[in-house]
Amino acid sequence: MSSSTDSPTLTTETTQLSPQPDTETAKPTKKITLKSSDNQIFEVEESVAMEFATVKSFFEDSPSTDTVPLPNVTAKPLSQVIEFCKEQIKFKANPDEAQKKKYNAEFVTEKSDKDLVDMIPVANYLEIKDLLDVLNQAVADRIENKSVEYVRSFFGIDNDFTAEEEAALRREHAWAYEGVDED
Amino acid sequence: MSKPQEEKYEEEEEFQSSGKRLKCAKSFKEKREEEEEDGEEEEETEGEVSLMEDTRGGLFFYPTNPTSFVVSDALELDFPIIYVNKVFQILTGYQAHEVLGRNWFDFKALAYNFSVELSYWFSEVDLLAPYLTNSHLADFVFPCRFLQNRDPRAQRRHPLVDPVVVSEIRRCLEEGMEFQGELLNFRKDGTPLVNRFRLVPIHDDDGIITHIIGIQVFSEAKIDLNHVSYPVFKETCSQRSDQSANYSPCRGQSTFSKLPEICGILQLSDEVLAHNILSRLTPRDVASIGSVCRRIRQLTKNDHVRKMVCQNAWGREVTGAMELMTKRLGWGRLARELTTLEAVCWRKLTVGGAVEPSRCNFSACAAGNKLVLFGGEGVNMQPMDDTFVLDLDAANPEWQRISVKSSPPGRWGHSLSCFNGSWLVVFGGCGGQGFLNDTFVLDLDAKQPAWKEISGGTPPLPRSWHSSCTIEGSKLVVSGGCTDAGVLLSDTYLLDLTTEKPMWREIPTSWAPPSCLGHSLSVYDRTKILMFGGLAKSGHLQLRSGEAYTIDLEDEEPHWRQLECSALTGIGSQSSVVPPPRLDHVAVSMPCGRILIFGGSVAGLHSPSQLFLLDPAEEKPSWRILNVPGQPPKVAWGHSTCVVGGTRVLVLGGHTGEEWILNEVHELCLASRQDSEP
């Protein structure tokens, strides 16, 4: 396990991390306000908000803003995403791959199908690559070897095929339907 | 392993063949240097124009158009643009001073009024990965990422951009591979242009990516931007080429845009859906999930998505070998055939040329679509040292003795394996002076192929009739065999051929399968090995074995363990189907991780022609019998059988008798051949 001192990405990390260099320790940690589409306010530490590439670039463009509106994001998945990012910050300060892996696995295991699916567009919109990877793998694992109907209800997708079209698809892909798990 | 120096100066013709990208990249670098000396005002040299010609796909079919040229420094984190030529400036409307020295991400701000349609055409993606890794590239999306945005405030890519292509570009660059494609650009003033382009990573001698060169050929585009709605992208490659002259962006409009309420997952761009979710599924799940809804159906129909799925599921080494094979079959069909095994059949082919003097106990292995044969036991037990190639890409394949600068000492009972696509490695065997433990490598694609000895670390004891395999494309694993004194061995050794000075090292395991010779080692799931059969030590006796063992070399402390395989007794089947014990049999690793066993010297009166299938990754692995139509060979030996192009199992010497007739080859076709299509 490499310590943080020899990490090649150290330069980018230290700028986001507390403890800050001595000159800045006196300042209170800067908070950033995020506003979800359902008008919930989230106050998060700057370091956490900077995990969201979208928010980060927003601040780079308009540094004087105090509230970042997130019109595509509702409160529930946003709170879960913030929870995840807070933990990731800790792992950045004290790298421990095994613990991180364990945390990430637990994070998705305890979420419902709907929570996972709802978080993906949020992680994608906010450009949180690590979370997106974790979520996508979790989703892929959950729909592995499942029936078409199961996958539809998993994602909440409506069947927009006509009966004839669907029958034709089923004939074409009969090989892929054999032996899938019970719904 | 670094390529020999002289190969840097290879001709551009080499560009077309697989595994040559490294060399071509170097010739690009030289060109660039030459051009820089000449100054920016220079006209494009003839050499550059010739680079644009692409006979494979007609990619650059406007060879008379001037070529635009962009170079970025890949050693700097932000990939600053260090060079654009005059043509780029004229055609895009951007002056060099607006571009040079800025990094790609700054430049984005300058260039919002660009928008790109990547209507793509893909070259076969060759495997260079063993040479290249560059963590910088992980964040590098595309040198002209700014081109994807049109609206000055846009934080997102323009909807015209084919997301699958963008992810492919990212993936190619992450893995240090060249990318070719076609895009719809806009000049600074908004005029649309079709841009056929190629992105070439440039490597230094250590394989580090130092630069990325973008070469573009622009031509006029006819689209109406006011009539475009999301998602617009091409359906299949074949359809695309038909439409390239008269581009119609509305064609791909899907029902998605008409639905007022859509579920969360469908809010995702096609790129995220395809690259991040579908790509993690098995090819079979992807086929099934296509029936979920129209949008996903459209995505899964894309052969490029299917290829990505196969690559992720089977590994790049495996799909790389199938590239040529699938040109016409398509990845979707190939995935189906390799899953259902519906197309498996035996057939015979006759090849020309001759392997002379005649011999037995040689070793054969596949390198791309070529079959390579080395050494063997000639007349009067003479150890042979010659190398023959059978190029199965040829219209009429024939055996050719290749002239090599130097040869390893003659031998038989050795192992021959392929690594890095075109390289071969010989280890051990029985030579004129007794048993050997030397190692030689050869680059088959080199201009003047030469066997070179590798002597690093502590090589395994001298041995013969051992078994070998290659994991992750470039790590040679050797196990078992017997010593000069006839003692059977049970050790496992690894030689990492990616390193500058490959060193043999033993893989210490607390427990090992009984010592044996003539067993098979088959790779599955990238780093796992299945050992099967062989002549094994059993008390004071040596008996044929029917046991299977497995090891995962990715484990921190790899260890062998016995694989308990049950016999699957199908309905109406009378007897158990466990393969009878055998040695020097054939073991074929199938792309989806299953392993096929047949042939060899089989105990009792069992037929060596019967095929057995095992999926060692199953929770409770069980053997199945695979019945295959066509005429099987009478015998099939592990040392004279290999898998060419990922799906063609070629059995040499499938006739019984004294003479080894190498012009009659039996082939077990795992997928239907394009030329046998109805």
UniProtKB/TrEMBL annotation, chain A:
Pathway listed: Protein modification; protein ubiquitination
Entry keyword Hydrolase: no
Principal subcellular localisation of the protein: nucleus
Bias-annotated ranges (Low complexity): 1-21
Keywords for this protein: Ligase, Nucleus, Ubl conjugation pathway
Record-annotated SKP1 component dimerisation domain positions: 129-176
Protein localization: Nucleus
GO cellular component: nucleus
Region annotation (Disordered) ranges: 1-32
Keyword Ligase: yes
GO MF, one example: ligase activity
Domain SKP1 component POZ positions: 30-87
One Pfam family linked to the record: Skp1_POZ
GO biological process, one term: jasmonic acid mediated signaling pathway
Chain's role: Involved in ubiquitination and subsequent proteasomal degradation of target proteins. Together with CUL1, RBX1 and a F-box protein, it forms a SCF E3 ubiquitin ligase complex. The functional specificity of this complex depends on the type of F-box protein. In the SCF complex, it serves as an adapter that links the F-box protein to CUL1.
Assembly behavior: Part of a SCF (SKP1-cullin-F-box) protein ligase complex.
PANTHER family, alphabetized: SKP1
Family per similarity comment: Belongs to the SKP1 family.
Name of the protein described by the UniProt record: SKP1-like protein
The species this protein was found in: Salix koriyanagi
UniProtKB/TrEMBL annotation, chain B:
Residue ranges annotated for the PAS domain, each copy included: 81-103
Gene3D superfamilies: 1.20.1280.50, Kelch-type beta propeller, PAS domain
Pathway(s): Protein modification; protein ubiquitination
Cellular localization per UniProt: Nucleus
Sequence ranges of Acidic residues compositional bias: 33-47
InterPro entries: F-box-like_dom_sf, F-box_dom, Kelch-typ_b-propeller, Kelch_2, PAC, PAS, PAS-like_dom_sf
BP GO annotations: circadian rhythm; protein ubiquitination; response to blue light
Main subcellular location: nucleus
Molecular-function GO term, any one: photoreceptor activity
Keywords, sorted A to Z: Biological rhythms, Chromophore, Flavoprotein, FMN, Kelch repeat, Nucleus, Photoreceptor protein, Receptor, Repeat, Sensory transduction, Ubl conjugation pathway
Gene Ontology CC, one term: nucleus
SMART domains in alphabetical order: PAC
Entry superkingdom: Eukaryota
Region (Disordered), start-end ranges: 1-49
Entry's family note: Belongs to the ADAGIO family.
Protein name: PAS domain-containing protein
